[in-house]
Design brief:
14 strands, alpha+beta, 4-stranded antiparallel beta sheet, 339 residues, HIT family, subunit A, 2 domains, 10-stranded antiparallel beta sheet
């Protein structure tokens, strides 16, 4: 059973995941991505290589765990946390720990091994976003969980161990410290000014335009003023919304258009880099509020975090966000040409 252990100095929780230590690779191995579709457990016809599906889209007829699907969601074969069991919080001297209870799932975004989020049709990408929502709503019914994180590791340097297009979901029994700090800071701003800080940032960025990458009727993508990494982007709804899963249905189609647009720009401008993206949303039980604004963060893997960053918590970004936004805006012609 994995464990959650709390750092007594910083209050940060760490997952000690013994099951993931049994992954079929060692730390010194360079090539960890299985590139051959014949051996890919996520490709159609290989459904028996994964755990039984939790959600499926697109299959008309046929039994469970068979080909014919457009999206599958399955439990991660090497979960960071396990769905079974109770938390059993306990102390160990001055240390605190609990059982590593949670959910760890894989969203297989398409049957096509060679496609990416930037190249699949908008409607297919919208279906992926709906699958995220469906799984979040289902897991929120489990009273043990406090937060559901959706994230994607695209490319080996971003942490992907399989190159078939997929995202991941982890449900946690605690609110991650990064999220808690973001939500609490937003609340303090709202308490003082009675406005959402994200809404204020969106208004200011739309006025100046210098860090805006793209926008449509419902969403805006910008490079944040204090970007931690070169070409970091935040994708936000223009109208205040505090939780990803509580949007109106029309928003997911608009989000798919915006996400595909900026990923195509990034591919064109940066030659298809590895990247991570995460959906930041309000914690379970706090979904409806006026102070926090859900959003997507996209981070291309262009630099590495090294000793200074680890030692200080500061980040050194060699590319000003204004220059990154301009470069991505101008990439539209190249992106369109690749369609």
């Amino acid at each position: 059973m994995p464990e959650l252990r709390k750092d007594p100095i910083t209050g940060r929780w760490v997952i000690i995941s013994t099951d993931r230590g049994k992954r079929p690779m060692d730390f010194l191995r360079d090539e960890v991505v299985a590139g051959d579709p014949k051996n890919c457990p996520f490709c159609p016809g290989h459904e028996a290589k994964t755990a039984s599906e939790l959600l499926v889209y697109g299959r008309n007829g046929g039994g469970a765990n068979t080909p014919g699907w457009s999206i599958r969601v399955v439990p991660n074969k090497f979960p960071a946390l396990k769905i079974e069991g109770e938390l059993d919080r306990e102390g160990e001297g001055l240390f605190d720990k609990m059982n590593g209870v949670g959910a760890h799932e894989v969203i297989i975004e398409t049957p096509d091994h060679t496609s990416t989020m930037a190249t699949i049709p908008e409607r297919a990408l919208e279906d992926v976003l709906w699958a995220y929502r469906d799984r979040m709503l289902d897991l929120k019914n489990d009273k043990r969980f406090r937060y559901v994180l959706i994230f994607k590791n695209h490319g080996e340097s971003a942490g992907a161990t399989l190159d078939h297009p997929h995202s991941q979901l982890i449900a946690l029994p605690i609110v991650p410290r990064r999220v808690r700090e973001e939500v609490d800071s937003s609340w303090h701003y709202y308490d003082e000014k009675e406005r959402c800080i994200f809404c204020d940032i969106i208004r200011q960025e739309m006025d100046t335009g210098e860090r805006v990458v793209a926008e449509n009727d419902h969403f805006i993508t910008m490079t944040p003023y204090a970007s931690r990494f070169p070409f970091e982007m935040w994708l936000l709804p223009k109208v205040h919304g505090s939780s990803y899963e509580n949007n109106q249905s029309t928003m997911y189609a608009s989000l798919a258009r915006m996400l595909k647009d900026v990923l195509m720009r990034m591919d064109a401008a940066l030659d298809r880099p590895a990247y991570n993206f995460m959906i930041h949303t309000s914690p379970i039980g706090e979904e409806i509020n006026d102070h926090y604004h859900w959003h997507v963060e996209i981070i291309p893997k262009l630099t590495k975090v090294a000793g200074f960053e680890w030692g200080t918590g500061f980040y050194i970004n060699p590319t000003p966000p204004e220059e990154a936004a301009r470069f991505l805006r101008e990439a539209k012609i190249a992106a369109t040409a690749k369609k």
